[in-house]
Every structure is written in C-alpha cells, then in structure tokens.
Design a protein that fits this description.
This protein is mainly beta and 378 residues long. Helix content is 9%, strand content 39%. The strands form seven sheets. A nine-stranded antiparallel β-sheet has the order 24-25-26-27-4-5-30-29-28.
Length: 378
C-alpha cells in the first residue's frame, strides 16, 4: 500500500467519511456560524428627482442642541418633562434605569427603545469605550410594575448595587425581570424598532468612524433574535438611484401594516423614507415632499403612534408629528398636518416607544437614564 494511502474495508464507512467531508467543506467557518449577511444586488432606493417638491411646514420650529444637557440633580425622586410650546403634555418618570448594570458592567448610554406589547421593553446601550458596539437589555415591565418599582424608582436604579455585600430579596426578584444580551456591532444604536406585522425586531448597523460619519456607503439592517438579544442575520444593500446615494439611516420605525420609515437631513431639508424590510432584501422610496423645517439639530429617533396613526420626528427637547397617510402617493401633507412641541428641562431625548394599541408615549432620555410616560395620548 503506498505511503499516505488508506483502505476502506466497508462501503458504509466510505460513505460516512464522504458525508463528513462534505459537511466540513460546505459549512462556513465563522466566529458566529448562525449569523448570515445577505447581499442585495439591486438598489434598495426608489427616487425620482422630478417628482420632488418642497413643503413649508412652518408649524415645526428648530430647537438647537444645548451646549450642555441638564443632568437631573436627584436620581431618587420622579422627574417631569413639560411641554412649553405646542400641545400641552407632561412626561413623568416610569423607571430610573439600573446603574451600574449586571455584574457591575457599565452598560453605557441608552440609545434607543422598543416595545413588543405590554410585557417587554428593550433598550440598546452603547458604552463610549466600545466604539460601534453595544448590547440590548430586555425589561419585563409587568414583573417590574408588580414589584412596585414605579413607586420606588431607586429599587430599579440600584438593582445591581449590593447591600452589605449581598443582594436583597427584592433585588433578586428585579434581576429575574431583566435580561442583558451580549455585546455586538450596533453602530450608533439609535434605531431599534419592532415590526408589528411580522413580529420581527430590526435595527441599522450604522458603523461610524467619527460621530455622524459613516465608515462606508453600504447600508446594513440587521434582524434581532429576541431570545438571544443579538442579530441572527443582516441585509447589505445600497440606497442609490438616479445620481442620489445615501449610506443608510440612523433611525427606524414601523407602522401596524409593516411599513418601515426613517428620516434624514442632508443639509437643506428633511427627507422621509418609506419602505419594506423582507428576509433577504429591503426597498425604500424617498417620499415626494421635502420638509423645509425639522425639529432640531440632531436626528435622535423616529416613532409611530398606533392610536393616532402619526409618525414622530424626535430631536432633543423637540418633537414634530404628522399623519402617516400624508405620505401616500405623491404626498399630500400640508403645514396644518404637523403638530410640534418644545420641552423643558434640556434633556437628551433618545427615543419613544408605544405598546401595541395604547397612544401613551414611553420617552427614553439620558443624563440620568430613565423612561418617562406621557400623561395622555401623544
């Protein structure tokens, strides 16, 4: 028998070895074999320059980002954020979020919020020390409310602060209501959103080489596994059409029909995009009305109120909204379609989420991280 050769005594053994060889040759070897990126070859953007027109939505006023955000003096008591212009509304503390996180982790800045109904609430945290990386933390709101943390905000805030080197019984119960996911590539992390139609959770993977400077012109949207709290697949695509090229979005929301939306500011007006996200492809169209006025310096988030059927454009201390139906066809929004609010004190607004039917807004703010709820449908 020649050196290096072998003799297969049984056909069954031969086919077994052949089968194993086939498996190892066809399965990609990656750090996370379950994560897949689908490469979309066709453009994901529908855009017709000649159909675009400006809308003077002067009901919306521009609020400059403050030189310094207000950091609340006390993280012990409930806080209030009040509208000082526009429709009267107050937001009051629902939860002061944990600090530090599980096992003493510094979860970092909360960047976005999503809800899947009346039970679970999800927050994306991105520590500044982990460039373009973050984690999702899930909160069981039914369990937390049953434990009375809304009446005693410090219990959730100090959930991972030991008392005399031990966790109390209440702390251990709170721990059961919180699940912290692993670190993964989030990008800026402002775009976590739940699709009420297909029950999927999505977010942009908008990696940045500097604040608000994308690493390239590819758009990535990733689907989040709600059990593992990490992406299981992503779609890579280009938003490019008729001379226009967009690297991707930084915010995202869905209506109850499964339509996806995001907004951007290229420097001269606000653009609203509407589209669909499928398993292996996406398609967005730039809606045909360019908004002359946007709510503020920074695009923080976008949200959809299922009760009022309105889309919200969120900046710091400033929120504008309009009916989603106004984007249909060639667009028929007018200045009177818009509602706008300015707020005090100067907090960093990160996002708003709603449960499946209620129009009560859950507002995520930073410095100190907390969630506040509106006193009526907003």
């Amino acid at each position: 028998m020649p050196e290096g050769a072998y003799h297969v005594k049984s056909p069954r053994i031969f086919f077994f070895i052949l089968g194993l060889t086939t498996i190892f040759l066809t399965c990609p070897i990656t750090a996370n074999a379950k994560f897949v990126i689908y490469h979309q070859r066709s453009s994901a953007l529908i855009y017709h320059r000649s159909h675009m027109r400006f809308l003077n939505n002067k009901a919306v006023h521009y609020v400059h980002v403050p030189a310094h955000y207000k950091r609340v003096m006390s993280a012990v008591h409930r806080h209030t954020i009040t509208a000082i212009r526009g429709k009267a509304v107050n937001f009051t503390t629902r939860y002061i979020l944990p600090f530090p996180g599980k096992n003493g982790q510094h979860w970092g800045n909360p960047q976005s919020i999503a809800m899947t109904g009346k039970k679970y609430l999800y927050i994306v945290y991105c520590p500044t020390s982990r460039h373009n990386k973050g984690r999702i933390v899930r909160f069981n709101t039914k369990a937390l409310d049953a434990l009375g943390v809304r009446l005693h905000p410090t219990e959730l805030r100090d959930a991972y602060v030991k008392k005399k080197n031990h966790y109390t019984h209440i702390q251990k119960q709170i721990h059961k209501a919180i699940k912290a996911g692993p670190l993964f590539i989030t990008g800026h992390g402002q775009s976590l959103a739940y699709n009420w139609k297909n029950h999927g959770m999505y977010m942009w993977r908008d990696k940045e080489k500097a604040p608000r400077v994308p690493v390239n012109n590819w758009g990535y949207i990733q689907h989040i596994n709600l059990k593992t709290l990490r992406p299981d697949h992503a779609i890579r695509f280009r938003l490019k059409s008729h001379g226009m090229s967009v690297p991707g979005g930084h915010d995202l929301t869905f209506d109850k029909s499964g339509n996806a939306y995001f907004w951007s500011y290229p420097g001269w007006c606000a653009y609203i995009y509407k589209g669909r996200i499928h398993h292996k492809s996406v398609k967005f169209r730039l809606t045909k009305q360019k908004l002359r006025h946007l709510p503020g310096t920074r695009i923080q988030s976008m949200a959809y109120n299922p009760k009022r059927k309105r889309l919200l454009m969120i900046s710091d201390d400033s929120i504008a909204s309009f009916p989603k139906s106004g984007l249909n066809g060639n667009g028929h929004l007018t200045n009177h379609s818009f509602q706008w609010n300015a707020f005090t004190p100067k907090r960093e607004f990160e996002g708003i989420a709603y449960n499946s039917h209620s129009g009560i807004a859950n507002l995520l703010v930073n410095h100190v991280p907390e969630i506040l709820t509106s006193n009526h449908t907003f």
